[in-house]
Amino acid sequence: MTLNLCKDPWLLFRLTSGDTAMLPLKELGREDLRDIVMPRQDFYGATWQFLIGILQTAFPPQDEDKWLEYYQTPPSPDELAKALAKIEHAFELFGDGPCFMQDFDSLEDGTHVEIASLLIDAPGGNTLKLNTDHFIKRDQVNALSPALAAMALFTLQINAPSGGQGHRTGLRGGGPLTTLVVSSDPSLSLFRRLWLNVLPVNQYRELQPPSPYDESVFPWLAPTRSSKEKGTEVYFSDEGIHPLQQYWAMPRRIRLETTEQKGRCDLTYEQVPVTVTSYRTKNYGINYEGTWSHPLTPYRYDPKKPEQAYFSSKGQPGGIGYRQWHQFLFEDRDQGHLPAKVVARLGASQELLEEELELEDHLSVWVFGFDMDNMKARSWHEARMPFLAMASELIPLFVQEVGGHVNAANDYRKSLRRNCKSAWFGAGDSSGDLSFIDDQFWSATQHDFYALVDRLKADIESGQQTLDTEHCLTWISGLKNHAINLFDALVLSDASQSEHLERKLGARRWLEWTKLDKAYLKKHGLNEKGVARA
Which InterPro entries does its entry note (predicted)? Predict the structure, then answer.
């Protein structure tokens, strides 16, 4: 069987009518395409990245005017087919030659592995031995369709966690977060939604595509840079590495194996002419090291040592919430956070969004990724958070102000958790997981936070240096009230639980007396008790 991901119809799209259609990528500009269809959220997020990577690599706009031209009038099938023809040689999924995201070598001497192991959340060998495969059960996925095998492979390569000796992590590290700008406007075509995350190359000259497209972009077009020996690490600035390879990085050495017979895909439950049931693999693939700058991922760095390597933001226990919001949208130099390039570009393009696209009210930042514990996937996180654009010269002040208000919320969050623990267990240690308290607090205060952000933006754009005292007091009072209400619900709601009541009421009083940063209070015209100064 042959399958070329650039030429053949393989991807399932959802149409305006609600129907679905399997189409080739040259149809991506159709006005009636609304979304893609994938059976797993990690595949869904990866396929968005795949399509954005295709457009950025094969069909990049040369400048802002060209970007706007194609946003307003998406490319025809002929235009896209012409662009895709330049890279189709790198997108054959099967065959004797170079295969998409697979080792240049056939790996005949490699280890044979069941196809389920391509799934990041699949149980590992030790998990199977200990019978602790709670996330995905063994024997659930024994065969995949070629299309889903391609997306499983792509998902693994761009997110690859540590995989044992010599099985390399992804270019962005294991389990990176991805942030995309997306629109909730139901009338917006899929192409336009993707195009929001494609960068003009005159602003990002490093993304100017090469001619021809070779292994500098698609590493599987040449023998793998084996990393068994010391000194074989691959860095962003290395000769023979094009920055576009960040979209197509290949840390794992894999060759898919097919069965030339009909079978059922265990993710879609549909019969397909050919299934992929296993793959061959070897260790010591490409070892990406140093600072990279993937356009779809936020990064963090040590602001005191900016010359050191930057690291991609990762999924963490506790998920994604407004406490990270400003760092996903804007650079935070004090804390060492860089937003993804696609987010930063639109975040500083207020005029484009408001006047040319009329989109700002419909936009959000879609954040997603795995929370990994080395080789183990703890959970999948994703969230859609309000998008905000503002003049670039106002961003540092805005970020500094937002950070202060988030810190105030975090002070109340810590106080709530500490005093709930004290009320339940007294002064003794507790090994129980109390993260549910954090989750409830962040959820309860989220609406107030985004209301504060809107007010703060208006204040700063009107020339103020801080949020005014009245609105800061409203924020702090809201934090206190939410914390106390949650404490009452968690600790005091059951009247029958009168044991240690005095201790519980004492903990409640300590919560009421939560202290906030003195400099923060003074800056906003409040005294140490959180009351407006006379």
Answer: CRISPR-assoc_prot_Cse1
